Each structure stands twice: as structure tokens, then as C-alpha cells.
Amino acid sequence: MLRVDHASYARFDDRPFGKWDVWLNVINVEADHGASERDLFAAFYGADPGWDTDGWRAIGAFFNCVLRPLEWAGFLTEAEETSEGKIISHVFKTPLWRSALKLDTDDMLVPIAIQ
After folding, report:
1. Which SS3 state, helix, strand or coil, does residue 93 take?
2. List of residues 6+ apart from 97 with CB closer than 8 A
3. Domains, the chain
4. What is the pLDDT of residue 8?
5. Phi and psi for 103 in degrees, rounded to 5?
6. Please, what is the end-to-end C-alpha distance for the chain in angstroms?
7. From the CA atom positions of the chain, what is the Rg in Å?
8. Could you tell me where the DSSP H helices lie in 1-115?
9. pLDDT means per 10 residues in the chain (115 residues)?
10. HSE of 114 in the Cβ direction (CA atoms, 13 Å)?
11. In angstroms, rounded to a whole number, what is the distance separating the alpha carbons of residues 20 and 104?
């Protein structure tokens, strides 16, 4: 998964700026209890540029080259909800992520409190 050029399958030759070790460590913390795709994008690249500008290509490249391959490999799962007429996708780590990946940010994770 980490050695494949995922952008080569895309309609455009857009690639997100970054490296897998950084993406994995940040996603490890940000998506520990679930995060929207847009929140993950903002964690790496700043404010969401929005779909109504040229920013849609940057968001699409991040989704297609980072999030989608992690989902296909079984490390992430996606759930959708509708809010104010918009579909919002949330990304969650799967049990495979937790059992197969040992990352530098693991010690930053806060366990889920069950009441």
C-alpha cells in the first residue's frame, strides 16, 4: 500500500503533499474516536478550501491517495450522516489499524471512557 503510486489511478495527476509516516501518525490521533474527511484534510493542510473553488482537487487528491487506500486495505472504515441536507463522511480506525500498526503517536491516544 505504501509503495504504490495511488495518484496514477486518478483522473488527474494530483498528489497530496506529505509522506505516509506523517499521514499515519496524524490520522492515528485525529481519527481515534472518528473524524470527518474534511477535518482530517484541515489537520494536514489548514482550512478546508471548499468544493466550490479549485480546492476540490486538493481535497480529492487527499481522499483518493491517502484515505481511500487505507480504507481499501482495511485500516479505516467510513460512516455517513446527513446534516442540514449535506452528507458528511466520518472516518474511523478499524481493529486492524490498532493491531497491525505501531506508531509514534500511540502514546498520545486517550482511551474511550465507557459509562
Report:
1. strand
2. 28, 75, 76
3. 19-107 (1.10.10)
4. 47
5. -120, 160
6. 38
7. 14
8. 20-30, 37-45, 55-62, 68-72, 95-100
9. 50 70 94 89 79 70 88 92 83 94 92 68
10. 0
11. 13
